[in-house]
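seq:
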Amino acid sequence: MGFLGVIAFILALLISVMIHEYGHYITAKRYGMRVTEFFVGFGKRLWSTQRGETEFGIKAIPAGGYCKISGMSPNEELADEFKPRAFYLASAPKKLIVLGAGSFLHFVLAFFLLFTLFAGLGTSQVLPTISQVLPCVPKESTCQAGDPISPAKRSGLMPGDEILGVNGQELAWADSAEILRASAEREITLLIKRDGQVINIAITPATRVVEGVSRGFLGIINEFGLVRQNPVKAATSSARATGAIFEGSIKALISLPSQIPSLIGQTFFGQERNSQGLVGIVGVARASGETVSSGNLSIGEKVATFILIVASLNIFV
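struct:
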């Protein structure tokens, strides 16, 4: 399965390259430029076909691709009939559009992938449904003899109960959780859906100190699941995610010079690799393989993670 993940990543990368080069191709043709070659891969030709003045094909080494536009340099020798269509004779705005079209389509592809993730497949989120009721308020990581009974158990909360809101107000789970954490030792009323009926349950969250911070504690573990968004919200989430990934990519590039010494140490002197450090294409491919082969993720979670990896790569490059 890990091997399949790497193969899937390589195919996704090649498709991204094709879309990138298509951006150069279609805009160059739109402005009357001559495109002689459009190839995926490098090295020896495996297959090609002629369509008009352009040769389309696949080469042996699946490590990129290219679109050959005539006259990229004034020094390039061209037949007299093709010189008026040379790239270097085009106006500056047209040159910029042709050069930037590939990167622009990367962003379009990333946005489309993220939209598919948010609206079609869904993202893994904490659900308002109770999966497990803990028997106590643990002083350590697990319940021990003498630990007090948890508020959830004392109040009669049950696995399968869905928390609709707090104090008579229907809320998203994230908002309800914030209120619960801020309500230690204060009675609140949970709006619960149980067996199709909506009931109110009074409960007083206990106090539990987590990393030096006192928080309200019920003693429940929520279910996790894939949640889909409506198209409008998915589009907004996709735009925000695209912007966040792009911002992270810029920060990574800015920090690159400061990481060179550690990269040298890791490469030549056996220093331990920083898990938060830079990852190359090979590392990303390996991560894709590990994602697909992981036994801790559902099929949906594997696909969602893979889509996120490919979308992030498109924004980064």
